[in-house]
Amino acid sequence: MALAKADGNTNPKHIPLLKQDLWVQVRGLPLGYMTSTMRKIIGDALGGYMVTDQSKKMEKLGSYLCIRVTLNFSKLLRWSLLLRLTENPLKMM
Hints:
Helices cover 12% and strands 24% of the residues.
């Protein structure tokens, strides 16, 4: 479901519902790849990285990453994203 702000003067049919900011959970990454760099790479690949979950103070905490992204609904939405991981996650930093 896409939502947009509307005022009382605009016809709802004329409000574009092309983009939406959403939280995305990324699961299945090895612990060494749960970094801020990887969050940015995945967020950009999904559409547009905005911010990560700031409630967790440590980088490597939990079994998934939470990333806020801007999704463009005029393009097909991704169900999954295949990533090729390097041997050493520290090379990405």
